[in-house]
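Schema walk-through. Below, the input block comes first and the output block second. Nothing else is stored per chain. Lengths vary across the set, and this one has 322 residues.
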Amino acid sequence: MISTMRVLSILAFLSSAHHTSALQTAFLPPSIGDQNANKSSAHRIPNTSNPSSSTESLSPSSLTMSLRAWACHGKTNRDMVEKLTMAGIIKSQPVKEALFRVDRGNYSHEPSNSYTDAPHSIGDGQTISAPHMHAHALEEILPTLTKMSRQIQQSTIMGTKTDVGNELKILDVGCGSGYLTAAFGRLVDQNGPIHPLTKGRVFGIEVIPHLVEQSRNNIMKEDGDLFESGTVAVSKGDGWVGLPGYAPYHAIHVGAAATSFPKDLMMQLHPNGGVMVIPVGANLGAQNLYRVERLRGNNVFNQNDFAIRSLLGVRYVPLVRP
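--- output ---
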């Protein structure tokens, strides 16, 4: 009989965002450095300079990777999305519909492998992540966008002002190929968002100029209406700094692994429950995907204003510093 430890280790390996020869463990958070070790693990930045000392709970969440991840290969974009759905990786109709509308073939450098469930190089040492990782990120962020949309809709009906603003705002850090930026755009499309979401704006930033241009060109192939409607904007930017001029964001996605939790990004989350999904850990070392929720607003960073939960072990390329 396979032990529980072995099963979870296999799950963590399969959930790796990029191919690796090392088995990724779901039990040890990445090295970040504990700034307040006596705080509750649900509201503190995890300690990974000495992972064995961490008391953070890493029990499997609803995002825990399906054993069928890496196996959802398709012959077409629709086929790939259907297989991700059958595997239980895509769980909601909005995410399924968004990925139907954005053809991954327009964002891959490898036409023959556009719909394989694996990462591909897009140049400059960067990759487009495996489709199952994009699906998981969307599914993890969707509940927050849905909750915020309901508040916006209710305030519109009642003619009252809401604390969450009048439209959704999403920041995609390290937008790379532009694929996930476009998928977010379809969810909150100014020309018609996917039910039950409201209209919104998506800001993609990328530190590598060549990839900024590549992202724009890819989106223009079949998703250029997202630019025309003002739903999506892509620009050069430092992923560690974010895009403070348009903050706060209801959701932030980071597509590369940070060596520590970027406080600037955390402070750009909406104070009423904004959520960030981010991989954290050393390059070529242990990494985990985290969910960071901002619980309250303060002008000065305080880690107790955030709830941090580890989701699963992953392997991403590093979040580049300028």
